[in-house]
Amino acid sequence: MSVYKEKGDKKWRVEIRTKDKTGKKIRKKKTGFDTKKQAEEFEREFINKIMNSSNITFKSLYEIYFEDVELKLKVNSISTKKAYFRKYLLPFFENYYIDEIVPNDIRKFQNELIKNNLSKNTLRAIENNLKTILNFAIKYYDLPSNPMAKIEMVGSRKNKKKMLFWNLQEFNQFIEVVDDLELKFLFTLLFWTGMRIGEVLALTFKDIDLNKKKLNINKTFTRLNKTDIITAPKTESSIRKIDLTENVINLFKEYAKTFYKPVPSTRIFTKGKVGIRLNFIKYIEQAKVKKIVIHDLRHSHASLLINNKVNILAVAKRLGHEDIKMTLNTYSHLYDEENQNMINILNNL
Hints:
Shape: elongated
Number of domains: 3
Number of helices: 14
Distance between the termini: 81 Å
């Protein structure tokens, strides 16, 4: 290993010959450094990367981390994560050595975020990404501990927004004013199946089995950089087949007549998310029902099932939750009445 200048050169060079932890020989050459110090820093950084040392910069960790996660996450998830890093995390932590980041550095970073008047959801996403990459360093780069563990999250869910949903009467009042057949079927499908909007928009004609009255959910839709992208669902458990109600099947048959010779791969819905959301708001105002967002139709479906005594395991499977704990944590407040019934039963005994 050496840092040097060739005779007559103005720039410094680095030539590294070493071995990684497995004994594999590594050779690296790089030129163009203005100072000897820059060349030596590059040399140290490269060696520490090879040896999985925590004495590397946050920027280097970022590069390594995304080389790893890009093989595991969906395109839209990678794009969203990178946006948080490039806009917020890298500008602040880029030149920090990860084994020198202390809780006070995190606190200063949080104070900078607060000045930007970001929403709780954005703050939480930024903090979770920072926590995740430092946990990655603990697992693979011998970082002793995560400084985030000693910090109170400014984007915490302490003041979590109350979940909103419609009961059947409210949904019927809403759907009565929807005069667009495509949107009528889409909103009906969301309310009566609990599907995610991305799952609904990815549906094709082959996904609906009218004979078995089942719906096959095996993909999701997103729009990235003005391009429509169909990918695998959120989790493995999101791949599922669910039963359809008669009202959904009848409405689908009516809507399907508006297509001219659709093939199995034809997507059922043609409208984009923005247009759907704007129309959703418009119809809510016309129907004079309480304001919710589209994802709340999923919560409405879960509430409908739980309030009609459907087993929580069946609810979790229908929603495509990875773990029943997720269903319980999300909808535990809907069981307050059940708890009172339980006490009444015990008292009677």
